[in-house]
């Protein structure tokens, strides 16, 4: 029996019982039972109903409430695990990947001067990873503090770092105003775009990537397009591609539409808020 039905029965049973008793009392029993005795019997009937039926229903209600509380606790724990997974992926995992890129570049150093330069950059990246880990731990303990840097500037810096670290030519056409975006939308859109670029660097073997962002009448439309090798099957079903699934889950949680398509020689990620036909 559901939680709602138990509550309804607890409310209905006494009401219906008293209604039936009063009807029988005034239509059949009135010549035999006085008003005072009828009132006493009404209280006795309610007491008996409470002891026999309502007591059982209240016990069932407590059991259902306990199960609901357990489900809420489990859901909260799963949400915390999901938050931890996102923190690890967005910060530590991607930073470690960039460290591996720096190590590859160090191995390809042309001479001693080039090697020293790359070692310095690697050391700088290690410090960045260290700060990133500390920030991730802090974010898990408390709410993350807002950055003093404007969101659009943070976005441009992230794209510049991608271009510098990957060597992939980046073509940017960004006309999306940050003013209509909520703080939550800025965080999630930033994470989705960063994940799209990381995937290009990891898997696409592309030479160029194009990023566009425009405001629409009821939202926005962002596109990340690359000329890499693409994919032959559904990339969201590939085992071990946690970043893509997280990106899809982020978009879904915000009510956005995210799709990944292959058109001619280009792989295209679309992130859209609002109706497709509204410009």
What does this structure look like?
This protein is α+β, with helices and mostly antiparallel strands and 279 residues long. It has two domains: 3-76; 150-279, 2-Layer Sandwich (Heat Shock Protein 90), CATH 3.30.565. Helix content is 65%, strand content 14%. It contains six helices and five strands, in the order ααααβαββαββ. The chain has helices at 3-29, 35-107, 112-141, 151-166, 183-204, 242-253, and strands spanning 169-175, 208-216, 219-226, 257-263, 266-273. Strands 1-2-3-5-4 form a five-stranded mixed sheet. Helix 5 packs antiparallel against helix 6. The longest helix has 73 residues, at 35-107. The protein is elongated. It starts with a helix and ends in a 6-residue tail after the last strand.
Helices and strands, with pairings:
Elements: H1 3-29, H2 35-107, H3 112-141, H4 151-166, E1 169-175, H5 183-204, E2 208-216, E3 219-226, H6 242-253, E4 257-263, E5 266-273
Parallel strand pairs: 1-2
Antiparallel strand pairs: 2-3, 3-5, 4-5
Keywords: ATP-binding, Coiled coil, Kinase, Membrane, Nucleotide-binding, Phosphoprotein, Transferase, Transmembrane, Transmembrane helix, Two-component regulatory system
Enzyme class: transferase
Catalytic activity: ATP + protein L-histidine = ADP + protein N-phospho-L-histidine
């Amino acid at each position: 029996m559901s939680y709602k039905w138990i509550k309804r029965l607890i409310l209905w049973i006494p009401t219906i019982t008293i209604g039936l008793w009063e009807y029988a009392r005034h239509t059949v029993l009135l010549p035999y039972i006085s008003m005072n005795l009828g009132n006493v019997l009404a209280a006795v009937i309610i007491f008996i109903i409470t002891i026999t039926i309502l007591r059982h229903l209240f016990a069932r209600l407590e059991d259902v409430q306990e199960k609901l509380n357990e489900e809420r606790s489990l859901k909260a724990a799963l949400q915390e695990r999901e938050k931890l997974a996102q923190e690890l992926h967005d910060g530590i995992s991607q930073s470690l990947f960039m460290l591996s890129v720096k190590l590859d570049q160090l191995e390809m150093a042309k001479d001693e001067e080039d090697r020293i330069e790359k070692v310095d950059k690697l050391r700088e990246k290690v410090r960045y990873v260290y700060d990133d880990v500390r920030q991730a731990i802090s974010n898990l303990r408390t709410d993350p503090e807002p950055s003093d840097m404007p969101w659009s500037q943070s976005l441009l810096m992230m794209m510049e770092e991608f271009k510098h670290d990957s060597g992939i030519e980046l073509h940017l056409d960004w006309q999306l105003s940050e003013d209509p975006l909520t703080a939550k939308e800025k965080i999630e859109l930033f994470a989705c775009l960063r994940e799209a670029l990381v995937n290009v660097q990891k898997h696409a073997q592309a030479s160029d990537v194009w990023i566009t962002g425009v405001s629409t009448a009821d939202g926005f439309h962002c596109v990340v397009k690359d000329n890499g090798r693409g994919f032959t099957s559904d990339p969201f079903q590939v085992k071990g591609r946690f970043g893509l699934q997280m990106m899809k889950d982020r978009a879904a949680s915000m009510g956005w539409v995210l799709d990944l398509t292959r058109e001619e020689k280009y792989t295209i990620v679309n992130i859209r808020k609002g109706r497709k036909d509204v410009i």
